[in-house]
Amino acid sequence: MYLALNNLYGPIPSELGNLKHLTNLELSVNQLSGSIPITLGGLPELKILYLYSNQLFGPIPSELENLKNLIDLELSANQLSGSIPITLGDLTELKILPLYFNQLSSPIPTRNRIGGSIPPEIGNVKGLLGLDLSSNHLIGQIPKEFGKLTSPIRLLVQNNSISGNIPGKFVSLAKLESLDLSDNRLNGSIPTCIGDFVHLFQLNLSNNKFGQNIPKEIGRMTQLDVLDLSYNVELQSLSTK
């Protein structure tokens, strides 16, 4: 069902949950409001769910855990609130999960308001290719379970309130091409294992609280096009040891 860009308004009908053989539901870039109906969790064959760029609010329903065939779940640019359900870790077929804020030019609400910590259960979604949690109200630390994600090429968590260190387990993210952890409250040293991200072309750790030396291992990242470590006031010179 393709109904994107149609100036639709009002709530999403709960009766859509009766379409048991639906594989695609695209309602993005409209003016839909209200909460996400829990009945959408009753669509066992759904693979694509696009609800981004609307005026939806309230929590992400935990009932979405029942969408075992879901590949792409896009909920960005709404007014969603609450925490990220740990049950999203049960969506083992999921490849794309953007929950970010896009700065759109139309009068669509500016951002999601998802808060709380990042659930470690997301590490169970082994085939995830892209995870974008940027521009929300997330707190706590980066889960070490992210190291179990063997396939991601994009990991974007910028503009939150994430604190603590970068987990050493990140070294297992061998296919990572883009890592953006900027505008958070991360501290400690930049781990030397970051030099093992040999496919990385974008690394942004700016505007955090990193200290000590810049690890010389960054020199092993031969594919790197963008490196931004600015606004880390305690960061010192490049290590030569």
TrEMBL record:
CC terms in the record's Gene Ontology section: membrane
Record bears the keyword Membrane: yes
Pfam families: LRR_1 (PF00560), LRR_8 (PF13855)
Signal peptide feature range: none
Lineage top rank: taxon: Eukaryota
SUPFAM superfamilies listed in its UniProt record: L domain-like
Subcellular location: Membrane
Membrane topology term: Single-pass type I membrane protein
InterPro entries the UniProt entry points to: Leu-rich_rpt, LRR_dom_sf, RLP23-like
Coiled coil, from the record: none
Lineage: Eukaryota, Viridiplantae, Streptophyta, Embryophyta, Tracheophyta
Keyword line: Glycoprotein, Leucine-rich repeat, Membrane, Repeat, Signal, Transmembrane, Transmembrane helix
Organism: Capsicum annuum (Capsicum pepper)
Entry protein name: Uncharacterized protein
Keyword Ubl conjugation: no
TM stretches of this protein: none
